[in-house]
Design brief:
The chain is α+β, with helices and mostly antiparallel strands and 215 residues long. Helices cover 20% and strands 46% of the residues. It has 3 domains: 34 residues; 100 residues, Lipocalin; 69 residues.
Length: 215
């Protein structure tokens, strides 16, 4: 009888130990894999590098990017991958050029401040304050596109555009949709299309307003 009790007790202890190990494993996994959500909208805007290098850049709503004061490192695109900011940059120097992706871990992101980590280095940025004027807001949110083709259509036309990186965009410009905001675009003009950007090739734009850039 004593042997049977000891046997059952041993089995119970083993089962209890296994449950504790499983629970500890789950808790450890939760600690090691924290869930962090990044508000992508906070990334859009012009960022001022707080280091002596002053490597300022702007991130636009349509996924394009620009270097604000760098002649040899030209940012072209950006995307968010979890908590990582990936910048596509074209490096120019000594007659040669190359395009590479730079990956940064987002450590801090607010409406006014951003801290990025690249290896052992922490890079601190402050968002440039924009005038409340709507035109200045538009300048921050949307990249400049060049009109490459205009095809007549019902009550308007279809425009094909491209950015400085060669990506193509398409939008239907019609009087019923834009009303007072309707504009006739010409090939070669530089514009900003304010609206909703979709996915695809070329990238579709549901235009709400057209801003022609005067050179």
């Amino acid at each position: 009888m004593t042997k049977k009790i000891s046997k059952f007790l041993l089995i119970a202890l083993i089962a209890l130990s296994a449950c504790k190990e499983a629970k500890n494993s789950i808790q450890k996994e939760k600690v090691e894999k924290p869930v962090t959500l990044i508000n992508e909208k906070l990334l859009i805007g012009s960022w001022l590098d707080q280091s002596e290098s002053k490597l300022h850049f702007s991130l636009f709503k349509d996924g394009t990017a620009s270097s604000d004061n760098m002649a040899t490192l030209l940012y072209k695109k950006w995307k968010l991958d979890g908590t990582k900011l990936i910048l596509t940059a074209k490096s120019i120097g000594n007659g040669n050029s190359s395009t590479d992706d730079e990956t940064y871990q987002i450590k801090t992101l607010t409406e006014e401040k951003m801290v990025l980590q690249n290896g052992n280095y922490l890079l601190e940025f402050v968002k440039k304050k924009q005038n409340q004027d709507r035109t200045n807001s538009i300048n921050t949110d949307y990249a400049v596109l060049t009109v490459t083709k205009v095809e007549p259509g019902k009550d308007g036309y279809t425009a094909t555009l491209k950015n400085d990186f060669g990506d193509l965009y398409t939008t239907v410009i019609s009087i019923p949709n834009l009303e007072k905001e309707y504009k006739e675009l010409k090939v070669g003009e530089k514009v900003k299309i304010i609206g909703d950007y979709g996915n695809g090739t070329p990238i579709p734009i549901k235009a709400k307003k057209i801003l022609i850039i005067k050179e």
